[in-house]
Amino acid sequence: MPTIKTLHARQILDSRGTPTVEVDCTLSDGSFGRAAVPSGASTGSHEALELRDGDAKVYGGKSVLKAVANVSEIFEALKGMEAGDQRAIDRKMIELDGTPSKTKLGANAILGVSMAVCRARAVSEKKPLWLSLADQYGVKLSKQVKLPVPQMNVINGGKHADSGLSFQECMIIPAGFDRFSDALRAGDEIFMKLKKLLPAAGYSTAVGDEGGFAPHVKDSAEAFGFLVKAIAEAGYEGKVKLGIDCAASEFFAGGKYTVDGKSFSSAELTAFYETLVDRYPIVSIEDSHSEDDWEGFVQMRAALPQTQLVGDDLLVTNVSRIETAIEKKAVNAVLIKLNQIGTVSETVDAIALTQKQGWNAVVSHRSGETEDAFISHLAVGLQTGQIKTGSLSRMDRLCKYNELLRIEEELGERAAYVSPF
Ligand code: PGA
Ligand code: ZN
């Protein structure tokens, strides 16, 4: 295996026009890999640190030149290292940083390097990235290789839009299909129906951060009503389900949850979700409660055992928080975001623990994204079976779907599409 020859970082702009880190890696055999780091808006407080410069006069304090400079320091530690062992590379960076939340070098600097090395190694191995990741982390692929079932965020609220909707993401989940490309087509046709239904009801079709519509509907029930109608009109009733990312930390204050203008205790909020699940074909709920309301999650899982309950801000792709969730029976699925933890290897550890527990892992984008489609390869390589990567507009979202189309084509007969719903 070749060694790490160069690492070069630069500041680029993400899908919100906010600076982020991009890293180029060259190996001693000339193989080249490039990766860009995404960024959240409704970030969990237990996430690894995204290092920003904080000079209000430059990009409103959001430039990442310190993180870019830190990649030079990382290079001094990694140069000449074998590129064949990603765990050793990631461990070296974790040691060099030496803090629990990667506050010294920044998770954005570390992750950019971690992903760029994975890409360069795949080139050197002459393998597609998904296969290189599978081999690197010892994933045993069966004859059929699963493409992920997407959760498509077609109505944006919360911190991702000014729609006034309390829930951050109202999603459609194309479940009843045999191929990823057919599922994608269904999602897209439903999105197009929605584009007609919303203006007919006097609403705007302007989009939020993840490319979904951001209509000023009066409450979540009205949003789900539109989704159900769009699914039926597109001819996919029964085949396409619904999901929500409540991102409840964002509407939790002073011990109370405020949804659609109503105030709920933790237990009342669970009861509210039960009424929604009764009324609409909702199969997945993410961050139903606030990031430290463990009791709320425990009650939620007991109340809705058939529903996929996903921990995002609650678990932040962190093995020790996932262990706590396992002990408490707090959820039954984990959202996986590379930049919440800051290296590819730790992300894979979080996926492996989730899968070992028999829970579902959902690989996810961030609301601030780039043209990098690494997560499409991660979802296939680690055989997670699910991905969350936004709506059916904006290239920062569609590039992930398009990459999955290419992977499906390349797999040919080996490509499988298996829905847990
Ligand atoms: P974020 O949103 O990237 O703004 O955190 C995505 C999510 O909450 O799942
Ligand atoms: Zn979330």
Describe the model:
Helix 1 (65-78) packs across helix 3. This protein has 13 helices and 16 strands. The mean pLDDT is 98. The chain folds into 2 domains: 4-126, Enolase-like, N-terminal domain (Enolase-like, domain 1, 2-Layer Sandwich); 145-417, TIM Barrel (Alpha-Beta Barrel). An 8-stranded mixed barrel has the order 5-6-7-11-12-13-14-15, surrounded by 6 helices. It has a 3-stranded antiparallel β-sheet with strand order 1-2-3. The protein has a 3-stranded antiparallel β-sheet with strand order 8-9-10. The chain is of the alpha/beta class. The structure holds 2-phosphoglycolic acid and zinc ion. Residues 40-43, 168, 245, 247, 312, 364, 366-367 line the site of 2-phosphoglycolic acid. 2-phosphoglycolic acid binds at residues 40-43, 168, 245, 247, 312, 364, 366-367.
